[in-house]
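Fig. S4 source data, part A: sequence.
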Amino acid sequence: MPKFLFLFVLLSTSFRISDDIANPVAHQEKELDWEAIADSVHTATFQAFLSEDGDYISQDNRGNQTFHYWWNAHVLDVLVDAHLRNQDQEAMMLTILRGIKNKNGGQYPNDYYDDMEWLALSSLRAYKATANSEFLEATEILWEDIKKGWNDHQGGGIAWRKTQLDYKNTPANAPAVILAARLYELQQKPEDLEWAKKIYQWQKSSLVDSDSGLAWDGINRNGDEKIDKDWKFTYNQGVFIGASMALFKQTGEQIYFDDAVKTADFTISDGGMAPGGVLKSEGQGDGGLFKGILIRHLAALTQSSALADEKKALYREFLRQNAVALYRNIRRPEMLIGPSWIIPSKEPIDASVQLSGLMLLEAMARLSK
């Protein structure tokens, strides 16, 4: 779809512009209209970052047309978020899925197992939201390739990439648990649940601190059998929370739920992860997406009926505090979001950073209902 045509269609949809945008301190008097703000930022995101050919989200708002496979997998995810809020996004969801395939040499699989897992997860959500089989076909193609990444290096686990099979990390394993569990929920194939449990057991025993719940990033990155314990990223906590909750949902086993709560409690209370109660900046580039991934899974845990009321209130207030900080510091009128949520954004802005902010706004839109 040509960019000019897409923008015409986008601006003609029912996306609303929030009355709160002109008054960034409105939170002092009332709860913000998070759904309207999310709509506004959706519109701004596609205005600023859509590629010239209209097939994918490009790197930044300054015209850098570089394509990033896994960033666009998360573009599909936020489109599903909007679609589930009664904004019909199926056509654009298909455009992004096909754009990823086209830019990736006419196929879905690539060299990175975590990249493929992000696309498989978002495609599966798109299928559940639309019942369009093209999304499920993409998911199944990717899942068959992802399973080939399991090997005996480091005692098991899925490799990070096909050319480095002895390096295992959380980004390639925790999302695979979520994917396998969700496929089991949809198709009831026992082998998918077994995959989810097997990968989870490796992840928990190899890359999660049993005392704090901190999920480390990876092991053997430099061929030295060492865990990267100095790499403490928000998204690793998010995907482990998501993996734990995915298995809790399918098995009802309390240990999975307890694991999710332990990691969530660590994350929101750790001064390194959330100084002053607001998630840290992890820069632009790939790191720009990290907070959004955490937010997605923490928000889902917050909505769990199994969560005690006091925990639910604690997590929701943490999310609200982050969202208010972000809202105060959106760059207006462009509605651009920077890597730090406590200072105004500066240009250029990478799409990864914008997407993280949008994930937070979508989470608040869901929670506000």
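Fig. S4 source data, part B ends here. Residues 8-29 have pLDDT under 50 and may be disordered.
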